[in-house]
Amino acid sequence: MESPDQPVLRDIVLIGGGHSHVGVLRHFAMNPMPGVRLTLICRDTHTPYSGMLPGYIAGHYGYDDVHIDLSKLAEFAGARFYRDEAVGLDRTNKRIQCRGRPDVPYDLVSINIGSTPQMQSVTGAADHAVPVKPIHRFNHRWESILAHLEGHEGPFRVAVVGAGAGGVELTLAMQYRLRKELVARGRDPDRLSFHLFNSSPQILPTHNATVRQHFRRVLRERGVEVHTNTRVESIEQRSLVTASGDHHEADEILWVTQAGGAEWLGNTGLALDEHGFILVGDTLQTETDPEVFAAGDIATMANHPREKAGVFAVRQGKPLARNLARAVRGKALKPYRPQKQWLALISTGDQYAVASRGPIGFAGAWVWRWKDWIDRRFMEKFNELPAMAEDSTEDPSHGVALNKEEAQQAISAVAMRCGGCGAKVGSTVLSRALNQLQPIERDDILVGLHAPDDAAVVKVPPGMAMVHTVDFFRAFLDDPYVFGQVAANHSLGDLFAMGAEAQSATAVATVPYGLESKTEDVVYQMMAGAVEVLNDAGCALVGGHTGEGRELALGFAANGFIDPDTVMSKGGMRAGEVLILTKPVGTGTLFAAHPRLSARGRWIDAALESMLVSNRLAAQCLHEHGSKACTDVTGFGLLGHLVEMTRPSGVDAELDLGSIPVLPGAEETANSGILSSLQPANVRLRRAIRNQEEAVSHPRYPLVFDPQTAGGLLASVPADQAEACVRALKALGYTETAIIGRVTEQGEALEPIVLNT
Ligand SMILES: Cc1cc2nc3c(=O)[nH]c(=O)nc-3n(C[C@H](O)[C@H](O)[C@H](O)COP(=O)(O)OP(=O)(O)OC[C@H]3O[C@@H](n4cnc5c(N)ncnc54)[C@H](O)[C@@H]3O)c2cc1C
Question: In angstroms, what is the span from residue 318 Cα to ligand 1's centroid?
């Protein structure tokens, strides 16, 4: 996360976590630039390293061997990671449009999004062929190809369109793996056949004759039928149609031919080449706009055009990072010239590879071992992250090129800040940020944001009671938009747990000091996320207070209505009822592990996904199934909240540790001793456990104390309703819902809870 002591002066935004940007992130991690905030926008959390992809398909590597964890790498680099897809660039206002969040402003932006298969020119290709790019999607399709083969009887034909290095390598890797899978299942591998189609007369047209000869021999020996001079003109379901009108049947068709630039780049006004790739100069700045950089497959160096290959994308990482750093300091950029010849190590799937460099070509099992060593060493740089350098500068501008007004704001941002009302965020900044929001309006809000006053005035319908709650917490992730969503969802949880309908909320926030434009954007992003969740819940944002502070923080005082006769209270449990939990636990340990670089990106993704699920429908469902006792599991953890229920209800309870749903990775991080700072306080409640000695060695034991953010509902329901209730909750999208125990009569023992192991 950003250091709270350094105001943000400039934003460098990286679009795409490709091979160049991973190098940029690593460079900035090792050479931090105070005052410069890095943001990575990428639709994937784990980005594949293309050099090892054929080895992964062949089954020589596992998923994490061949993927770079962008969430971890960004955390290591102190960069914000926005998991999203860029879909546009508004260069006039210097904002990036994304598919699932408000626009992201930038001072400098760099694009490294790889290439997109150009399938639209071939009829049916988009519907019936599997593109190998983007590789992340191919990964999923690969799993379904494996499943397809498993369920298939009789001959199985695989066609690959494109016989460049990627197509040839992929064909051989797939053949090796699929045959192995069939043998392992005791089935005949010879029912598999492979067909490689190429429009040109040669396979591997950009490589030398020796390399081509090697591959022609390997393909022949492996029984792959090569169709050169065969242009595929259209694709139908399960067949390819060539230019000469021939039909070739195929159970799976893979598309590995020439790719182009993403369609949205056409609307950016950036100069593109004939394939839609961005034209860049020697400094990697686009030809059109010096504040927009590009690298990797998506960029074409106008003065040094090269083949689209990962090796060039990797090499561009360092000069790109240096030039971004120089540009932000207002210094002259340095030109970069890519090498003319490059070493390609192309594998044949069976732990054998062919080396190709200019006119040189040689092959062997040792070449594969060499490739494997190079690739693993490359991946180590991103997966085994070294210690970071310290910041030493005292200059509030940190060498960043600022105009006069910005320089003044930078000095003021690090100067002593006022407390009391002086700590409020300036009204212009606030109103500019808040004016962009569109909170819902309700008839029962008499005075709210639509008619701002000293306080909001709301009506309570006759016969209804008002429910009040408040929550507030520091940001636990560097994405203000998602943080805003989680904070709002968490705050509404208390209302829903009572069975109330949310009506109105006031926000209280602190934002770190900094340039006005940066503060305004953080307020806007955070509140945009929050308002989205409040609006979804029918809850009107009616006011708030925003102050300056060291760290980003947000909370809500939320109000709701309830029919006093239908309240689900903590004290409503009855012996004989069954305990239901609607969401998995583990957010505390996972978000303790994240800044320590000990949580995988996909674990954090899953935790965030769970935190964004509203408890609203779950509460209704529990109520409909007879629940009179419900609470949302938050800071005190599952056990703490359960004890809060058993005490006023005058009952005991049994928890089945093995049935408690747990977020991916949470058991792993908790059992390696990475726990929330609140855990020790929660663990004091172990005195409520009757059989503590027996339970303590269970892998889920630490998780009963794990504090949750936006956790699920814990409720007791009549035993005869429990199964139906779980089914209904799952159908509503609470897929991890589980029966985790039961309510028992209060016994003689002082400890009310038994943990079944
Ligand atoms: C089977 C196969 C094998 C290959 N083997 C080799 C090899 O051994 N050596 C070699 O040098 N080259 C190889 N290549 C070529 C290589 O894959 C590419 O040249 C390389 O991946 C390009 O890297 P990149 O950084 O430009 O983009 P990519 O690696 O494609 O990365 C782009 C990233 O940007 C993200 N992204 C895309 N669009 C958006 C968006 N709109 N918003 C946010 N994020 C976005 C993607 O999710 C991805 O994480 C191979 C290709 C294939 C198909």
Answer: 17
Question: Which residue shows structure tokens 């695989």?
Answer: 158
Atom of ligand 1 nearest to the CA of 135: 30
pLDDT of amino acid 618: 97
- Cα–Cα dist 165/311, whole Å: 13
By three-state DSSP, how is residue 227 classified? strand
Nearest-angstrom CA–CA distance, 684 and 299? 57
Residue nearest atom 53 in ligand 1 by C-alpha distance: 166
HSE-CB of 577 using CA atoms within 13 angstroms? 25
Tens digit of each residue's pLDDT (9 = 90 or more) over 337-367: 999 888 999 999 999 999 999 999 999 999 9
Pairwise CA distance, residues 251 & 326, whole Å: 52
**Active-site residue (options: 42, 421, 630, 725):** 421
Q: Please tell me the distance from the alpha carbon of residue 38 to that of residue 328, in angstroms, as a whole number.
A: 12
Centroid of ligand 1 to alpha carbon of 346 (angstroms): 16
The contacts of residue 189 (CB under 8 Å, 6+ apart) are: 178, 179, 180, 182, 183
CA angle 13, 19, 22 (to 5 degrees): 50
Q: How far is CA 660 from CA 15, 197, 574, 592, 639, in A?
A: 39, 52, 21, 20, 11
Q: In 208-308, which ranges are continuous DSSP H helix? A: 209-221
- The pLDDT score that the predictor gives to residue 125 is 87
Of 504, 483, 498, 567, the closest CA to residue 713 belongs to: 498
What is the spatial distance between Cα 539 and Cα 535, in angstroms, rounded to a whole number?
A: 6
Hey, which bits of 475-600 come out as E strands?
501-512, 540-549, 553-562, 578-581
Give the percent of the chain with pLDDT over 70.
Answer: 93
298 CA closest ligand 1 atom index = 26
Alpha carbons 5 and 396: distance in angstroms, whole number: 10
CB contact at 8 A, 342 and 357 = yes
Structural tokens at position 484: 């805003």
Residue 211's pLDDT is 96
Could you tell me where the beta strands, DSSP code E, fall in 262-421?
278-280, 292-294, 299-301, 344-347, 353-357, 360-364
**Which contiguous run of DSSP H or E holds residue 629?**
strand 629-632
539 is annotated as an active-site residue: no
> Ligand 1, from 113, 170, 211: best to mutate by most atoms within 8 Å of Cβ?
113
Give residue 548's pLDDT. Answer: 83
Q: Note whether 483 and 552 are within 8 A (CB).
A: yes
* Residue 711 CB contacts under 8 Å (≥ 6 apart), including other chains: 493, 583, 585, 587, 632, 633, 634
φ/ψ region of 523 (left if φ > 0, alpha if ψ in -120 to 50, else beta) reads alpha
- Is 136 touching ligand 1 by the criterion CB < 6 Å? yes
Query: 296 in ligand 1 pocket by Cβ < 6 Å?
Result: yes
| Cβ neighbour number for residue 508 with a 10 Å cutoff | 17
Distance CA(456)–CA(440), nearest Å, equals 14
Residue nearest to atom 5 of ligand 1 (CA): 51
The answer to whether the beta carbons of residues 128 and 252 sit under 8 Å apart is no
Ligand 1 proximity of 164 Cβ (cutoff 6 Å): no
Ligand 1 contact via 493 beta carbon (within 6 Å): no
CA separation (Å) from 682 to 214, 338, 666, 704, 707? 65, 57, 17, 9, 8
Q: What is the pTM for the complete model shown?
A: 0.91
542 closest CA partner among 588, 507, 502: 507
Dist. CA 76–CA 70, nearest whole Å = 10
φ and ψ at residue 385, rounded to 5 degrees: -95, 125
Predicted confidence (pLDDT) at residue 249 exceeds the cutoff of 50:
yes
Question: Does the beta carbon of 525 sit less than 6 angstroms from any atom of ligand 1?
Answer: no
Six-digit token string for 648:
């006023």
Distance CA 297, CA 303 (A): 15
Name residue 656's amino acid. Answer: D
